[in-house]
Amino acid sequence: MPHDVSLIATIAAGFGLAMVFGYIAVRLRMPPLVGYLLAGIVISPATPGFVADVGLASQLAEIGVMLLMFGVGLHFSINDLMAVRRIAVPGAIVQIGVATLLGIGLSHFWGWSLAGSLVFGLCLSVASTVVLLRALEAKGLLKSINGQIAVGWLVVEDLVMVMVLVLLPALAGVIAPAEGVAATQGSDIWQAVGITLAKVTAFIVLMLVVGRRLLPKALWWVARTGSQELFTLSVVAVAVGVAFGAGKLFDVSFALGAFFAGMMMRESEFSHRAADESLPLRDAFAVLFFVSVGMLFDPAVVWNEPLKLLAVVAIILLGKTLAAVALVLLFRYPLNTALTVGVSLAQIGEFSFILAGLGVALKLMPVEGQSLVLAGALISIAANSALFSAVEPLQAWVRKRSAYARKLEARDDPLAELPASTHESLLARQVVLVGHGRVGQRIAQTLREQHIPFVVAEENREIVDALRKDGIAAVSGDASTPEVLIQAHIARAAVLVITIPDTMSVRKMVEIARTLNPEIDVILRTHNEEEAALLKSESLGTVFLGDTELARGMAAHVLLQFKR
Q1: Which of 29, 44, 95, 120 is the most exposed place for a label (fewest CB within 10 A)?
Q2: How far, in Å, CA of 390 to CA of 397, rounded?
Q3: How far apart are CA 344 and CA 333, in angstroms?
């Protein structure tokens, strides 16, 4: 038996304690990430007892970063981002700027250098995609317009941080030259940035031209063998191999290399299988990533610098949230959307850890800053689920006590009501179509081809704006509120078609519609048999189940072949 088992000991202790603390965190209704970070603190050099090998843990964490970013790339959708680009892109950029300035101002007050303050501010400006996705899934908001805006917002933040990670090493000698070394001249600055961008551009071009064709094809070749373990191995090999090659050949971060590997793999017809097959390994190494981050945390910062920690938490929970809420309201979205997006951003996570580690490694930010970032992440992640639960009560409380909040909800919005020029033929015996997603678009296309009048009710303002430009009657807002259905002239409609598979909202929509129009025909969509049975038992309308309709269509096609 070998004497050097530090790798095994690190993995065993990391996984074992992560499981225990993760379970405790879940039982306390907190994200398991909190437990993983605490597990790392327990086996860190800063706490008594067993101390894991920090060097090995850091390398395992690098693999975790690669697989995490590979997973982000696999699920990255340009279409999803484009659907909310008008609010997500400017909102994310402005919010990053506000949070970064708050962090710079705070750390400059503490006497830090400008370089350290800049890195610190950037660490506080970006939220965790992992925490957000799990919180939205738990609340059933992932497919809602609020969830789409929040996810699109974070995608933009992630892309900005990827560029920061790429450029920071090249600019390190410029913004904070080493002691005894002359500051870099302006021409050298642009040369360093130019070389870095040229390498990144070369890597991106290589991935778009070669990787986009080769990687999906290679995955198809492996899938044809029928070997599941070989398929899983190929997915992991691509993720780690491309990330490592990007770092060695192009001086690109492992994170960016893995992200582009995932994006290119998404082009394959087996991308969903690749995501499923690599998920267990991604989850396992992601745990080790968070454990290793916890190992870098010095708990002494909590009692040595409580005021500094309180200020950091205030920026994360209040500064970022208020900035996001104000921006969303500025774009004329309702208070519920503003609060949901604000709460979604009221935490920091994996990119903050990566950036803080890079800042310390480049000697730009003091080690104290990394501990403050980690402590702020622990507190904000632990509080995030509670903040999500408080959105609806807070919204009700604010509406009840604030005349300004009620004014915001009732303000004039040109997209919240149909234009006066809407033709009368569209407002009698028409179809009210709730939702203009993939299903809603196909229904709308069919109605247009058959010259059947219809009005679309959709929460996404950008979709409503685009529909109106295309000559389609559309109204913006939540159709589970009376105002939106009244604007769609539900009282004179013939049919209500609800393409949103949200049982709670569906009940409200049907109740409002039948109160205003008792004779209206209602058509509903659902994703599973249990919900379908429930909706049918309550006589809410004609229910269509996706799997059932697919099977019916395929069976009809089979029968057609035998009738020939």
Answers
A1: 29
A2: 10
A3: 16
Predicted local distance difference test score (pLDDT) of residue 224: 82
* Structure-model confidence comparison of residues 424 and 452, the more confident one: 452
**How big is the chain, counted in residues?**
564
What is the rounded distance in angstroms from the CA atom of residue 324 to the CA atom of residue 95? 6
**Tens digits of per-residue pLDDT, 506-563?**
888 888 898 889 889 988 888 777 777 777 787 778 888 877 777 888 888 788 878 6
Q: 74 to each of 46, 69, 162, 278, 344, how far by Cα in Å?
A: 37, 9, 16, 11, 22
Cα within 13 Å of Cα(372), Cβ side: 30
pLDDT-derived band at 124 (thresholds 50, 70, 90) equals: very high
Place of tokens 């997500």: 88
Give the number of C-alpha atoms closer than 13 A to the C-alpha of residue 484, restricted to the C-beta side.
26
pLDDT (average), residues 323-330: 88
Strands (E), 386-536: 431-434, 454-458, 474-476, 495-498, 521-526
pLDDT digits (tens, 9 = 90+) for 134-164: 677 667 676 677 777 887 888 788 778 877 8
Map tokens 């900005």 to a residue: 160
First to last CA, the chain: 71
Smallest CA-to-CA distance from 375 within 293, 469, 495 is with: 293
In this structure, are residues 94 and 327 in contact, taking their beta carbons and an 8 Å threshold? yes
In angstroms, the CA 32 to CA 382 distance is 9
- From the list 378, 373, 387, the residue with the least C-alpha distance to 344 is 387
To 5 degrees, how large is the angle CA 315–CA 43–CA 383? 30
Per residue in 343-402, pLDDT tens? 888 888 778 888 888 888 888 888 888 889 988 988 888 787 778 878 778 777 877 777
Q: What is the DSSP string of 267-288?
A: TSTTHHHHHHHHHHHHHHHHHH
Mean pLDDT of all residues in 194-199: 76
Q: Hunting for tokens 């033709």 — which residue is that?
A: 423
Q: Would you give the distance in Å from CA 341 to the centre of its chain?
A: 11
Q: Per the structure block, which two tokens stand in for 385?
A: 């689920």
Amino acid at 271: S
CA distance 266 to 275: 9
Pick the closest to residue 294 from 120, 50, 39 (CA basis). Answer: 39
- 429: Cβ contacts below 8 Å, ≥ 6 apart: 453, 492, 493, 494
pLDDT at 245 over 90: no
> In Å, what is the CA distance from 280 to each residue of 277, 509, 513?
7, 40, 45
pLDDT of 313? 92
pTM score: 0.71
DSSP states of 134-166: HHHHHHT-TTSHHHHHHHHHHHHHHHHHHHHHH
Residue 165 CA neighbour count, 13 Å, CB half: 27
Angstrom distance (rounded) from CA 126 to CA 349: 8
